[in-house]
UniProtKB/TrEMBL annotation:
Keywords of this entry: Hydrolase
Molecular function as annotated in GO: hydrolase activity
SUPFAM superfamilies: ClpP/crotonase
Originating organism: Amycolatopsis methanolica 239
Identification of the protein by name: 2-ketocyclohexanecarboxyl-CoA hydrolase
Family, per entry: Belongs to the enoyl-CoA hydratase/isomerase family.
InterPro entries recorded: ClpP/crotonase-like_dom_sf (IPR029045), Enoyl-CoA_hydra/iso (IPR001753), Enoyl-CoA_hydra_C (IPR014748), Enoyl-CoA_Hydratase/Isomerase (IPR051683)
Keyword Hydrolase: yes
Keyword Cell division tagged: no
Length: 248
């Protein structure tokens, strides 16, 4: 880990980083470790090989009953990424399919090389993108989701950015630079403020602004008066970095 960044690398290239029992176990453990480490400010999720993640391990799925399918363990991983109090940045130099796209959607910020492709390939093998729909549908515009879930067609990183699945598609030689820029920006935010802002973004919207103002006023005033908020206000006035910013 460097400067408050925990990098989690999917490293099972022999099966295209498919979500095998071992990979699920190791990924979940790594996410828990990063979440519980006070020194970690930002989590970067990346991979080795030419594939970010090919989805569930179909060899393990073959012949198993509904109760024994590995997909039963997948919601925990998506939930860990989605609700992580530390922002999660996904960095893709290789393709994502099915469950791999679900993890991409669960991340807070996603950067992919322009050559990367995506697909909701479930229907092509007679299954349903059910679990991943819970992270994908809040991100992707409805018409695109309708098309891509039903056809299973492959689409590129620039289309993924257009429909809201990822934040940015960049030339492969700029992938590190673009990812690092997001990481640096995220590390400037107060840890508690970032966690609360993630919860805010995931919360249902009130019917009208007036309906939401009482709760939002309480939250805002609480953070202005908090130890973290007061440190940020002092740092701004003293023209210095607040004490939560990692030292290089």
């Amino acid at each position: 880990m460097a400067s408050g960044v925990a990098t989690i690398t999917l490293d099972s290239p022999h099966n295209r980083n498919a979500l095998s029992a071992q990979l699920r176990r190791e990924l979940s453990a790594a996410l828990t470790k990063a979440k519980d480490d006070d020194a970690v400010r930002v989590i970067v999720l990346t991979h080795t090989g030419k594939v970010f993640c090919a989805g569930m391990d179909l060899k393990e799925a073959r012949g198993a009953g509904a109760g024994d399918q590995g997909v039963n363990e997948f919601p925990r991983i998506l939930e860990q990424i989605w609700t992580s109090p530390k922002p999660v940045v996904a960095k893709l130099a290789g393709v994502a399919r099915a469950g791999g796209v679900g993890m991409v959607a669960a991340a807070d910020i996603v950067v992919a090389a322009k050559e990367v492709t995506f697909a909701f390939s479930e229907v092509r093998i007679g299954v349903v993108p059910a679990v991943i729909s819970l992270t994908v549908l809040p991100r992707v515009n409805p018409r695109a989701a309708q098309e891509l879930f039903l056809t299973g067609d492959v689409f590129d990183a620039e289309r993924a950015a257009e429909i809201g699945l990822i934040n940015k598609a960049v030339d492969a030689d700029r992938l590190d630079e673009a990812t690092d820029a997001y990481v640096r920006s995220l590390a400037l935010g107060g840890p508690a403020a970032l966690a609360a802002t993630k919860e805010l973004l995931a919360s249902p919207r009130p019917a009208t602004p007036a309906d939401g103002f009482p709760d939002m006023l309480k939250l805002s005033a609480q953070f202005f008066a908090s130890e973290e908020g007061q440190e940020g206000i002092r740092a701004f006035g003293e023209k210095r970095k607040p004490n939560w910013v990692p030292q290089d």
